[in-house]
Amino acid sequence: MERASCLLLLLLPLVHVSATTPEPCELDDENFRCVCNFSEPHPDWSEAFQCVSAVEVEIRVGGLSLEPFLTRVDPDADPRQYADTVKALRVRRLTVGAAQVPAQLLVGALRVLAYSRLQELTLEDLEITGTMPPLPLEATGLALSSLRLRNVSWATGRSWLAELQQWLKPGLKVLSIAQAHSPAFSCEQVRAFPALTSLDLSDNPGLGERGLIAALCPHKFPALQNLALRNTGMETPTGVCAALTAAGVQPHSLDLSHNSLRATANPSAPRCMWSSALNSLNLSFAGLEQVPKGLPAKLRVLDLSCNRLNRRPRPDELPQVDNLTLDGNPFLVPGTALPQEGSMNSGVVPACARSTLSVGVSGTLVLLQGARGFA
Description:
Blueprint: H1 2-20, E1 25-27, E2 33-37, E3 56-65, H2 83-87, E4 93-102, H3 103-113, E5 120-129, E6 146-154, H4 160-165, E7 174-178, E8 198-200, H5 208-216, E9 226-228, H6 237-247, E10 253-255, E11 280-282, E12 298-303, E13 320-325, H7 350-359, H8 364-372
Parallel strand pairs: 2-3, 3-4, 4-5, 5-6, 6-7, 7-8, 8-9, 9-10, 10-11, 11-12, 12-13
Antiparallel strand pairs: 1-2
Helix pairs in contact: 3-8, 5-6
């Protein structure tokens, strides 16, 4: 017992040091997820070696510039020299956030990752500086299934998607672009996304229905099935219908939740015929006091939950629908106050209000070292 007490006393300083000076990288016990937060002014990048065995890797750099990595770039280096090392990595999902990244370094990383088994890439809170060089003839594109971008700024303006697209193989299935500094793309430069089935443009409140046409790039998404437009400044379902028609997009599922929708369209707006492909429409959290006009004639799923409906909609106000959701509307919750003009919260069921707040405005070092050698 006495020896055990002495051992604990010896371990106390180590526990104290660990608590006051946390390591920048943490790998879970299953060697599955590794998270690095390099917030120090002069981080020790070698700590990221802990992540070489992880399947899911997240790296945040505290807003630091990665430009110093460019001092050792060899533009003529052949990335194939790293192929065997990169293929041995287990990483399938990679998140990089909170950094200033030279475009040349980003391209270098993408060229290395092209030899990996990476499937999902997420870029968050990044500032991409400089222009991206063209894809070399011998380069292999990155075979991603999912690409998610949130609050990423590009020095190249509207042409950024076309420039990034050339470094990707055409098999991308999921694309998410949130808080974009330029949600409209240079459509004449963008190539088609032949395999893309899910496009999420949520949390771009300045997009609006006019901007939606420019963002969808007509006839560039022939396989699109799921389109999410939460918190994007949409005004009426009819206006969205017109934008989709102009862009030649026919999604099966459309999410318009978390927009302040009007129930009636502009009287001068022409009637819009929805594509028969659409079978699921989400109009939850839209502040609706009545069912909007101009909905598709037939739907499999219609979600009107967490709106301000004070009575059950009549059958003649609804499309033909198999699965209708009305949860969280005032008429289903006794005692809920009626909406009052000028009040954003009156008439909202408390559970829905809490949900709205929760949504909000909606081998890694080897990779970095390899990216130094080419761009």
